[in-house]
Amino acid sequence: MTMAATQKVTCVEIGGIPIALSTCDDGFLGLLRQRYDGFLSTSRPEFELEFDLIPTGRASDDDVRVRREGDDWLVERGDFHARLNPRTGRGSVRQTANPYSLDSVLRILHSLIVSERGGFLLHAASAICRAPSASFDASFNGRAYLFSGVSGAGKTTMTRLATADITLLTDEISYLRPSADGYSAFGTPFAGELAKAGENCTAPVAALFFLDKGPENRVDELSPAEAIRRLMRNILFFAEDHGLVEKLLATACDFVTRVPIRRLTFYPDARVWDVVRNFERNFDRDFACNSQGVPEHA
Amino acid sequence: MPENCTYIARSSAIAARALAGEMMVMNSADSTFFTLNEVATAIFQAADGRTPLREIVRDRVCGQFDVDPEQAQADAEQFVAELSGHGILLVSNQPLAPEAR
């Protein structure tokens, strides 16, 4: 007689989307709770993922393949196989009990879920900055700044240079969702070289900077076409799905028209944050909202 | 039908949007992304599978932009070859039916 093992569940909420993760394995449950500590949630889950652990496997550098099979999303890489039905919210993951596969599965599933809702995951560090001049307004919790670029561009460097008054959302993967007056950035547990999860909080996006290291700190305008070229290069997107590609391109075009996007050339010392603080200090003057609540562009 | 005609059509497996006078094009199959300048956008938008490329260049490029016709035709052929290599445009020596895209 076989007896069904008891499933234990923990709920992880990233980007405001709670996902219940269930497993029969106490050790794996502990790994989940430890890895996503700070993002554990008591919200009612929107999705449920059941983990089926396999005893041996390998970490994989293989390309991930994401495709539709009927209503389901199928996500496959050498080290995992995941399936999610976005309509029912139920899915399953088959992988070894390693945290790297776990992170990859969650990142990819979130990229699919959020792209259907007009958001996206961006290869970018992000942080909440609050200019000292705004301190008279106790209800103002600051605005988020995004720092994007390929590996080596300076994402982790920017987060390492941040002072204590800056709230770090991530040094690697930024989570962006549309909001009434633009886009909001959410903290994520997906860390890069910093090896530290971001704060679990959110703020409206003030600007996106594409990073370049240089001999001095300076901010330059980017044309909309150049901005979208760079943006598309850094969005995490894997799906071979025409409908989702159309949605993503529409989202990217919308983002470029609603969020100031600049090139930030920086010399890697703490003074670069003065440039960001200066941008924040002048934000309301430079990007005052028009009657539709959409920022005007300089 | 004139001899040596080239017909071009936009693939159905792409997403495209105009932004600030340029066309953003993304291939659904491999997520490759292209931005087209004004001249390229004019050719891309006229790629209906029924109008010969030479006619598109004459009407949509030479008629709208200050370019040498021969140079425009050569540039257009190069552009079409490049985009067809990425699956963005389909090319044929016969008109392309919508279902073929």
Report on this structure:
- The complex is a heterodimer of chains A (298) and B (101).
- Chain A is α+β, with helices and mostly antiparallel strands.
- Chain A has two domains: 109 residues, no CATH class; 167 residues, Alpha-Beta Complex (Phosphoenolpyruvate Carboxykinase, domain 3), CATH 3.90.228.
- Helices cover 26% and strands 33% of the residues of chain A.
- Chain A has seven helices and 15 strands.
- In chain A, strand 1 and strand 2 form a beta hairpin.
- Chain A is globular and about 65 Å long.
- The C terminus of chain A is likely disordered.
- Chain B has one domain: Outer Surface Protein A, domain 3 (Alpha-Beta Complex).
- Chain B has three helices and six strands; from the N terminus they run E-E-E-E-H-E-H-H-E.
- In chain B, the strands form two sheets. A three-stranded antiparallel sheet of chain B has the order 5-1-6.
- In chain B, helix 1 packs across helix 2 and helix 2 packs across helix 3.
- Classes of the chains: A alpha+beta (298), B alpha+beta (101).
List keywords for this structure.
heterodimer; A: 298 residues; alpha+beta; Phosphoenolpyruvate Carboxykinase, domain 3; seven-stranded mixed sheet; five-stranded mixed barrel; 26% helix; globular; B: 101 residues; three-stranded antiparallel sheet; 3 helices
Write the topology of this structure.
The complex is a heterodimer of chains A (298) and B (101).
Chain A: E1 8-14, E2 17-23, H1 26-35, E3 47-53, E4 65-69, E5 72-77, E6 80-85, E7 90-95, H2 99-116, E8 120-129, E9 143-148, H3 155-161, E10 167-170, E11 173-179, E12 182-186, E13 202-213, E14 218-221, H4 224-234, H5 242-258, E15 261-266, H6 272-281, H7 283-286
Parallel strand pairs in A: 2-3, 3-7, 9-13, 13-15
Antiparallel strand pairs in A: 1-2, 4-5, 5-6, 6-7, 8-9, 8-10, 8-11, 11-12, 12-13, 14-15
Chain B: E1 7-10, E2 14-19, E3 22-27, E4 33-36, H1 38-46, E5 48-52, H2 53-62, H3 69-85, E6 89-92
Antiparallel strand pairs in B: 1-5, 1-6, 2-3, 3-4
Helix pairs in contact in B: 1-2, 2-3
